[in-house]
Specification:
This protein is an alpha/beta fold. The protein has helices at 16-28, 47-54, 69-78, 100-104, 159-165, 178-188, 214-232, 236-252, 256-266, 280-287, and strands spanning 6-12, 33-40, 58-62, 84-88, 92-93, 111-118, 124-129, 132-137, 145-146, 154-158, 192-203.
Length: 291
C-alpha cells in the first residue's frame, strides 16, 4: 500500500501565543506531516509572520471576518491535496510520537476518520433516550474501538471521504455539534470511525470560544443540538419521542422556546441526510463497540 500523505490544519483566532506554545511540540512529534495549513479566522495578531518565520512548509489563509470553526476548517481542508488531514485545535499538543497507530487504520479504505486520545477526555458512549441523542464519556480507555464521531479538536480524516460528505455543515457556525454531525453522516453512509487509545494528545481547552459571550454561546449549543437531530435522524419512533420532548420540556422550561425558534430560523439552510446505507438504530448498535 502506498504511503499516505498527511497535512495539518489548524483554525486559529488571535491566538499566536497558543501557536507559539503548542505548534513546535506538535511538529516535533509529527514527522509525517508534510504541510501546515493555518486558517486565521479574522484575527488581528501577527500569526502570519510567526508562521512563515518558523515553518517553511506552511500555508497561511485568512478570513476577512470571524466566521467560526466550521467555515474555517472547511477552508483549510479545501487547501489540502493530501490523502489525510490531521485537524488540531491550537490548544492541542503531544509529548511523544502519537500518529503511527492512527495512520495504520487507514489501510482500510472504508475508514473515514481516527480520533485521538485526549488526556482528560474519552470516547463517547451514545444512545437515544427521552427523545434526544445522548452521550457520556466512556470509562475504559485501554482498547481501540469504534466511535460515533471524530473530535474536531484532534483527529485525522480521509480527505476523499470528507469531500464526498461535503465537509462540515456550516449551519452549525460558529461551532459545536459540527464534528458529531459529519461523523453521523459518515456512519449512515457506511463509513467507519475509530478511537485510538495509543494516539495520545493533551488538549488544554484555551480556544477562542472562551472569548465569546457565554449566554449567546449556550444558546448556539442548544440550537445546534436540535439542528443535528432534525437533519440526521429519520427513525419514526425517534422522531415521535423527540416531538414529545420538545412539547413537554418547553411546558416546564418556557425559555427553551427561544432555542427552538433559533433552530427553526436556521432550517432554510438545513441539509437533510439522504441515500443512507445504515439506519439510525444500526449505527447506534455499531458505534459503542470495540473494534
Amino acid at each position: 500500500m502506498k504511503k499516505l500523505s498527511l497535512n495539518l490544519v489548524i483554525p486559529s483566532y488571535n491566538a499566536k501565543y497558543l501557536l507559539e506554545k503548542n505548534l513546535p511540540k506538535v511538529i516535533k512529534w509529527s514527522p509525517q506531516v508534510n504541510k501546515i495549513i493555518v486558517v486565521d479566522d479574522g484575527g488581528s495578531d501577527d500569526t502570519k509572520k510567526y508562521l512563515f518565520k518558523n515553518f517553511k512548509n506552511s500555508v497561511y489563509l485568512k478570513n476577512n471576518n470571524n466566521l467560526g470553526f466550521p467555515k474555517s476548517v472547511n477552508k483549510g481542508f479545501k487547501a489540502s491535496k493530501a490523502d489525510l488531514v490531521l485537524l488540531l485545535n491550537n490548544d492541542v499538543y503531544s509529548t511523544k510520537p502519537y500518529l503511527d497507530k492512527a495512520i495504520k487504520h487507514f489501510q482500510d479504505p472504508n475508514i473515514f476518520a481516527v480520533t485521538l486520545n485526549e488526556k482528560n477526555s474519552s470516547w463517547p458512549k451514545v444512545s437515544w433516550s427521552k427523545g434526544k441523542f445522548q452521550y457520556t464519556q466512556g470509562k475504559d480507555k485501554s482498547k481501540t474501538r469504534y466511535t460515533p464521531w471524530a473530535s474536531g479538536g484532534s483527529a485525522i480524516f480521509r480527505k476523499s471521504i470528507w469531500d464526498k460528505l461535503g465537509g462540515l455543515n456550516e449551519i452549525y457556525s460558529p461551532g459545536y455539534w459540527e464534528d458529531i454531525d459529519i461523523g453521523w453522516r459518515a456512519w449512515k453512509q457506511g463509513y467507519k470511525i475509530i478511537w485510538e487509545p495509543n494516539s495520545k494528545v493533551i488538549h488544554q481547552h484555551q480556544s477562542s470560544f472562551n472569548k465569546l459571550n457565554q449566554n449567546w454561546l449556550n444558546l448556539i449549543k442548544q440550537r445546534n443540538e436540535l439542528l443535528f437531530i432534525w437533519q440526521n435522524f429519520s427513525n419514526p419512533k425517534f422522531i415521535l419521542s423527540h416531538l414529545w420532548f420538545l412539547f413537554s420540556y418547553t411546558l416546564t422550561h418556557p425559555g427553551f422556546f427561544k432555542v427552538i425558534w433559533a433552530a427553526i430560523k436556521s432550517l432554510p439552510r438545513a441539509r437533510r441526510i439522504k441515500n443512507t446505507k445504515l439506519s439510525d438504530s444500526r449505527v447506534l448498535e455499531i458505534v459503542n463497540n470495540l473494534l
